[in-house]
Amino acid sequence: MPAYLPLAEAAVVLALLASGVFFMTGLLTGVWKYRCIWTSDASEAPYYVNTAHRASLLYAFAALVLMHFAAVSPWSTTVNLIAVAVPVFFFGFAVGTYVVHGFLRDTDNQFEQPHVLGPFELPPFVVRGSMWLLIVGEVGGFGVLFVGFVARLAGLV
């Protein structure tokens, strides 16, 4: 591991661990995706199986971006850990949602009303509220790290 990534920094460790989990999830959902393609008459995987596969791989690399920004952040260990943990939680929440919809094959658009989850309907405020929390958590978490990096570059911290 490069010297600029101290293992003692909890945020760095969390981000690297998350990257590994998302990458493995991407690989395993890729196996699931191709299994669906092989067994489908139309040679297609369900929409959210594809989405889970692609999102997991993208989030693996997004977690590496978080790791590097946390490694150079001037903020405290606690602030960095929260700034990494919140987006990582929401990355996982999103992938989990895609996996559930892929397994249930209940929709090809989770935002279409009525919002379905298997045989259940979710109230619109649950879906909208989840999305707003995800937006605030992901943008806010990275924003804290990015502002710290820019402040360090500018010599403000």
Indicate the mean pLDDT: 94
Main sheet summary:
2 strands, antiparallel
Total helix count?
A: 4
Return residue spans where pLDDT drops below 50 for at least 5 consecutive residues. Answer: none
Question: Which range best describes the helical content: under 10%, 10-25%, 25-40%, 40-55%, 55-70% or over 70%?
Answer: over 70%
Q: SSE order, as H and E?
A: HHHEEH
Estimated structural class: mainly alpha
| Biggest β-sheet: strands ordered side by side in the sheet | 1-2
The number of strands is 2
How many structural domains can be distinguished in the coordinates?
1
First-to-last CA distance: 26 Å
Whole-angstrom Rg: 18 Å
Q: Label the overall shape.
A: globular
Percent strand? under 5%
